[in-house]
Amino acid sequence: MDPHVLKKLNLERASRRAAIVLTDLGDGRDRLIGEGDEVAGDLGEALASRFRSGKSGIIAHGERELFANVHLPSPRLAIIGAVHICQALAPMARLAGFDVRIIDPRTAFATPERFAGFDLAADWPEDALKSRPLDAYTALAAITHDPKIDDFAISAALEAGCFYVGALGSRKTHAKRVDRLTEAGLSGEQIGRIDAPIGLDIGAASPGEIAVAILAKVVEALRSRGEVGNG
Length: 231
Prior knowledge:
Layout: H1 3-14, E1 19-24, E2 30-34, H2 41-53, E3 57-61, E4 64-71, E5 76-80, H3 84-95, E6 99-103, E7 119-121, H4 125-131, E8 138-142, H5 147-160, E9 164-167, H6 171-183, H7 188-191, E10 194-195, H8 207-223
């Protein structure tokens, strides 16, 4: 690989930004494409598909063959609320390949005994997110049902461009949340990205079922990044 391209790739990876090293198999020349870089035509569509899938492979472009080596940051899931839903969601998300972090200032819930082996922060989101900020490859599930805990995390996720932002609560609860976030200065477009009531509408009732519904929407959001109608 061209040393200049490698240096740029390492910078992108260190910043948790997705990139593709595109190599012309005819002459061996490399170039780096960042997610969101404008590439026109069929090649742009093919690269966007690779960014969504995370799969490397050969792209036919006219008479040339290009190899797209895809480098995506590892996806993260930040769960706000060490509740029963979280006890089901955290291990499922880890099995699905997500780096899971659990945040809840309520020490009666956020205990090592309940979440052995997980990155657990028994702290307010305002403090916990300073050491590990949210980013575009992080999903956020706010499930405490307590606006004093959830609202800051939701706002931070929307500002950071998290690929998924979901919040527990009924439509009535969410309407009140919308009012609070609007008053806090978030735009209608930002607030419109919140998945609420959280999760895929499968009629989920138990904590385990709700966890399945949440994870389904998180995976869908991860794999549809950049498509029209998805933020």
